[in-house]
Please model this.
Amino acid sequence: GDSVTQMEGPVTLSEEAFLTINCTYTATGYPSLFWYVQYPGEGLQLLLKATKADDKGSNKGFEATYRKETTSFHLEKGSVQVSDSAVYFCALTLYDKVIFGPGTSLSVIP
Amino acid sequence: DSGVTQTPKHLITATGQRVTLRCSPRSGDLSVYWYQQSLDQGLQFLIQYYNGEERAKGNILERFSAQQFPDLHSELNLSSLELGDSALYFCASSVAQKLTRQGFSGANVLTFGAGSRLTVL
Model:
């Protein structure tokens, strides 16, 4: 069935380090792909999205490219800040389905 | 403020009791989703409504039920509560995408509320 797999956390980085959180998906059709972020004590919010192959979503310095050939949507940021500490969820939507990955917790230390 | 309102924010109750969580979707959104988030289970999809009708069901227990009213607000009813039901319950809404025979077309962006934290003692 359709699914989303993310790298296990928690991930701990120093401020200004490079971030990659891997996400791969399995889907029977052509899904839209998303990254959501959940800051401590809050609900999830959309970080970025891509709706077709080779699209690049970007927001707040984060980027992810929809790679159909590798069924991946890895999240990257060149220089993380303490304020980026949060849980990051990869997700796909395909018709009625909205499928979230398990989430990756990121802690950025000064 | 995301535009999705959930009440109550916090709720403490005892095992065996029944509670109702309420969600008002963002203005114009026809779809409402309910999720349960616990430390050991992650984010679990419970149920989805679209314009008053149940659209999809996830891992929702028989002790739980939900509905979406004509004004589009939704309620999640949790009964015969157990300790393991302690969790954050999130509601999300989405803009109505074009509904085809296969389902919604287009990117289905969810807007989440701040959640209702349920503690069962």
